[in-house]
Amino acid sequence: MARALGFIAALAACAAACVADDPGQCEVGTTTRAVQSQDRKILGAGAAYVPDGTLRATADQLDRSQKLRREAAWRTVAKILAPVSLGYDLPNMPGASVPRWQTWYGKDDVVRLFNRLFTGLGTDDRYAHARFDQTAIDAAFGWNVDAVDELDNWPADRC
């Protein structure tokens, strides 16, 4: 939690440090990169996020108390930033972890999963717009973690 608070404090300090009249001068550069097959192999399956089931029951209290809302928000931030062990042991990095949110599925995962499921339907089911059954969906998610092993350009000795 202290590490998460430190990160958020640093981010807030960076944002507060920019006082230029031209907002374009304050933009922070970001880089996003899709989770490719080799990344998913290292990350493993997306880490589950268990929502706080008590929030709805305390909605009236949350509406009346900014302090309670902040506490609930910080609990959520702590869960999102909680370290999650990688799904693959990296050499020279035993016990490596990433924040939970970095394991979640992105566009590339969804495209890989959809393509796997869609091609698995067969021609007739594709034309009939058949639904994917839960067994096939579960199998596709399991396959996605190791999909890199099926790529022609991924040498077997890298795993």
Strand order of the largest sheet: 1-2
Beginning-to-end CA distance, first to last residue: 33 Å
Share of helix, binned: 40-55%
What is the count of helical runs? 7
Radius of gyration: 21 Å
Oligomeric grouping of the chains? single chain
Helix and strand succession? HHHHEEHHH
The residue-averaged pLDDT reads 81
What does the main sheet amount to? 2 strands, antiparallel
Q: Structural class per helix/strand content? A: mainly alpha
How many distinct beta strands? 2
List segments where confidence is low: pLDDT < 50 over at least 5 consecutive residues: 1-20
Strand content: under 5%
Q: Number of folding domains?
A: 1
Any idea what the shape is?
flat
How does this structure look, described?
The chain is mainly alpha-helical and 159 residues long. It has one domain (2-17, 34-158). The chain is built from 7 helices and 2 strands; from the N terminus they run ααααββααα. Strands 1-2 form a two-stranded antiparallel sheet. Helix 5 packs across helix 7. The protein starts with a helix and ends in a 14-residue tail after the last helix.
In short:
With 159 residues, this protein is mainly alpha-helical. It has helices spanning 2-17, 37-43, 59-64, 66-81, 107-121, 123-127, 134-145; strands spanning 83-85, 97-99.
Tell me the layout of helices and strands.
Layout lengths: L1 H16 L19 H7 L15 H6 L1 H16 L1 E3 L11 E3 L7 H15 L1 H5 L6 H12 L14
Antiparallel strand pairs: 1-2
